[in-house]
Amino acid sequence: MSAPRPNPLPLSTPYPPSPRRAPVGTVAKPLPLIIDCDPGHDDAMAIAIAVARPELKLLGVTTVAGNATLPRTFENARRVLALLGAGDTPVAAGAAVPLVRPLFTAAYVHGESGLEGAEMPEPGGRVHEAGAVDLIARLVEASPEPVVLAPLGPLTNIALFLRAHPELAKKIAHISWMGGAIGEGNVTASAEFNVYVDPEAAAEVFSSGIPITMVGLDVTHLARMGAAETARLDAAGNRAGKIFADLLRYFLIFHRERYEWEFCAIHDAVAVAHLVDPDLVGVVHAAVDVELGDLARGRTIVDWFPQRLVERSRSASADVAVSIDSARFADLLIGAIATFD
Ligand code: RIB
Ligand code: CA
Predict the structure, then answer these.
(1) Can you give the pLDDT at residue 12?
(2) Which of 110, 171, 186, 339 is the most buried (most CB within 10 A)?
(3) What are 320-337's pLDDT values in tens digits?
(4) Enzyme catalytic residues
(5) What is the pLDDT of residues 156-167, one digit of tens each?
(6) For 48-85, how does the pLDDT look when each residue is reduced to its tens digit (9 = 90+)?
(7) 274 CB within 6 A, ligand 1
(8) Which of 37, 155, 193, 254 most suits a substitution to test ligand 1, by most atoms within 8 Å of the C-beta?
């Protein structure tokens, strides 16, 4: 076996990290959180952190087509909630297709079901029949505090929510999004999957003015779970540990074949972990634009110098993730999974 390829994202940032703008939950003041996702192995692990950590109050889970079709991501999210003993968490299905593009899914990564590799429990969750946009609106309206959104898939539901309820944008405290890349993409050389699937939605969300943290491949490729970490899950001695270890063994297949890595990148879990651990991820303030053309569709153009003289000046309204403490991340994720039955 040749040596694992280096992380394909040589990252150079001209600045020291900027102060983070995403809020951090505390046990005394848990962050009200809605996760929008497309489970998805890494989505499942992100939900585990959200349920396990007392610094977060998971208000609800919405699902979007992405890694798999909507019926599958919806069912997968419900199975994950059942596994985590969060069967009373409101859950809703959202968009079955992107805003304008045909759906592009990732069975080559997550399997046809979207969550291959483990015996999952029967679906749970308190189904909100009126759908994802309505559930987000009701939860945001009812929350005494502004709510944090953690979208972990294509941003279709978030764009549709903001179109339908512009008056509620002021009650969104922050968006911690897994997606994009400063460097190389993972669907094309230009684009990461979540933004490739629905670049128009991403462009709408980035231009909404809501503070956003872009947790891109540059750091999520360093959020690694390999054999040692999988063994720690097996050794946790609980059902959740065994199931997540089985899911990782399946998830590894893609990473081995594509990158010759002996570990999985747990992309989505970083966007949620960022909300509980202020020392996990470093960010730099930047302007982010999304390419909507065909050649570089879904490219997230990260500009550290938004006041460039040669282009229109823009606000550096995004926190772009540029560093991560990989060992700290693995401990946080394994620690969360170990709390379940
Ligand atoms: O590119 C990685 C992202 O695409 C993750 O959110 C993964 O779950 C897929 O949705
Ligand atoms: Ca995802």
Answers:
(1) 62
(2) 110
(3) 999 999 999 999 999 999
(4) 267
(5) 999 999 999 999
(6) 999 999 999 999 999 999 999 999 999 999 999 999 99
(7) no
(8) 193
Domain contains 18: no
3-state secondary structure of 212: strand
Residue among 213, 217, 334, 335 nearest 285 (CA): 213
Q: Is residue 79 assigned to a domain?
A: yes
Mean pLDDT of 2-21: 65
> Any idea which ligand is nearest the CA of 270?
1
Q: Is 178 in the pocket of ligand 1 (CB under 6 A)?
A: yes
Q: What's the CATH code of the domain at 260?
A: 3.90.245.10
Q: In this structure, which ligand is nearest to the CA of 195?
A: 1
Range of the domain at 103: 31-338
Any ligand 1 atom below 6 A from CB of 193: yes
Q: Which residue's alpha carbon is nearest to atom 1 within ligand 1?
A: 193
**Environment class of 114 (CB within 10 Å of its CB; exposed 0-12, middle 13-18, buried 19+):** buried
pLDDT reported for residue 315: 79
Residue 97 near residue 59, CB atoms below 8 Å: no
Number of domains in the chain: 1
pLDDT digits (tens, 9 = 90+) for 287-316: 999 999 999 999 999 988 877 766 666 778
3-state secondary structure of 197: helix
pLDDT digits (tens, 9 = 90+) for 236-249: 999 999 999 999 99
pTM flag (> 0.85): yes
Residue 6 located in a structural domain: no
DSSP 260-311: --SEEE-HHHHHHHTTT-TTTEEEEEEEEEE--SSTTTTBEEEES-TT-SSS
197, 333, 336: which is closest to 267 by C-alpha? 333
In 10 A of CB 341, how many CB atoms? 9
Residue 14 forms part of a structural domain? no
Cβ(153) – ligand 1 distance below 6 Å: yes
